[in-house]
Amino acid sequence: VQLVESGGGLVQPGGSLRLSCSGSGFTFGSYAMRWYRQGTGKERELVAAIPSAGGSPYYADSVKGRFTISRDNVKNEVYLAMNSLRPEDTAVYFCNAFRRRFGRTNDYWGQGTQVTVSS
Predict the structure, then answer these.
(1) N or C: which end of the chain has fewer CB within 10 A?
(2) Are 80 and 72 in contact (CB under 8 A)?
(3) Contact 19/93 with Cβ under 8 angstroms?
């Protein structure tokens, strides 16, 4: 199982970035996909989530209206489009695949990609 994030980097306040996460080794389409982030000295927090099929995405209040999560189950990829970035969005962003089925939980993580918002 592998989740590989990409697209992080340094951006000025007000700028945009698009993170990508490519999954392999598991049935991508049957998993809910989530983006978490962890700033220096902070706890990891859930930023956005998208169900495996149908349903509405979830967004943390801090990113609502600025971030958009989407997925492509053919390419086995999930994306996080981030607009109007703020210094407080600076963090390592992690991709997560989660499924709970028939009493069994599968929970996979990527290695993270750094996003730095600074002038």
Answers:
(1) C
(2) no
(3) yes
Closest CA to 24 of 89, 95, 85: 95
Is residue 115 within 8 Å of residue 90, measured between CB atoms? yes
- Cα-Cα-Cα-Cα dihedral sign, residues 92, 93, 94, 99: positive
Which helix (H) or strand (E) segment holds residue 7: the answer is none
Please spell the DSSP secondary structure of 32-79, one letter per residue: EEEEEEE-TTS--EEEEEE-SSSS--EE-TTTTTTEEEEEETTTTEEE
Cβ atoms of 49 and 57 within 8 Å: the answer is yes
Cβ contact 22:76 at 8 Å: yes
Closest alpha carbon to 25 in 43, 42, 40, 4: 4
Residue 10 token pair: 């340094």
**pLDDT tens per residue, range 23-58:** 999 999 999 999 999 999 999 999 999 999 868 999
